[in-house]
Amino acid sequence: MFSIGLTGGIASGKSTAARYLGELGAHVIDADRLGHRAYEPGTAAFKQVVDVFGDDVVAADGSIDRRTLGSKVFGQPGELKKLTDIVWPEIRRLADLEIEAERARRPDGVVVLEAAVMVEAGWQRSLDEVWVVAVESDVAIERAIARDGLSADEVRARLKAQTSNAERRRHADVLIDNSGGLDELRAQLDRHWERVASTHGTRTVAAS
């Protein structure tokens, strides 16, 4: 089993890259999806979040009210760290369980952990390679405005709150420049996938 950590900033194309790697044959684990599971009622992380941030973060249906929780941590680094100290280890625990299940099912396969917070959480240290999808900030701003309907100032604020491209590049084994179109992105991914497949004996599945 070969493990890849895939990361990138807002509107970098990270999720597009993850979907394509899935088409090529990788088993993709979405950390955002696991993040939703980490908050599920009855879990240890759910209880910790309520204990730390108060009963008012619980919605009427018994789930975590993300809007209320977000208001308690937004712009407050100390409070945000309290939250990530609870949630990030749980996300990683869930990811490790999925990785081990995939390893048992397909020992010669490739697993991709897609996570925007890969570097912040320190998850890259236990993976075989880190692939960083990057675009310049002006490209990210343009794409995020078109995709999400955000204002330029909103996108800049999100970029400022994230790890910088320079810091991600420092941890990258593979840098994917997604400044061009989809065909260029896929060509880069094809090249690196073929290298991994040939080096580690991974079966390559042709993309549709």
Any idea what the shape is? globular
Order of helices and strands: EHEHHHHEHEHHHEH
The structure class reads: alpha/beta
Strands of the widest sheet, in order across it, are 2-3-1-4-5
Tally of individual domains: 2
Provide mean pLDDT, rounded: 91
Share of helix, binned: 55-70%
Largest sheet: 5 strands, parallel
CATH class division of the largest domain? Alpha Beta
Notes on the structure:
This protein is of the alpha/beta class. It is built from 10 helices and 5 strands; from the N terminus they run βαβααααβαβαααβα. The protein has helices at 14-24, 31-38, 44-53, 66-73, 77-105, 118-121, 137-148, 152-161, 165-171, 182-200, and strands at 2-8, 27-30, 110-114, 129-134, 174-177. It has a 5-stranded parallel β-sheet, with helices on both faces. Helix 1 (14-24) crosses helix 10, helix 2 (31-38) packs across helix 5 and helix 7 crosses helix 8 (152-161). The longest helix is centred in the middle third of the chain and has 29 residues, at 77-105. The two termini are 24 Å apart. Residues 204-208 have low confidence and may be disordered.
Topology of this protein?
Blueprint: E1 2-8, H1 14-24, E2 27-30, H2 31-38, H3 44-53, H4 66-73, H5 77-105, E3 110-114, H6 118-121, E4 129-134, H7 137-148, H8 152-161, H9 165-171, E5 174-177, H10 182-200
Parallel strand pairs: 1-3, 1-4, 2-3, 4-5
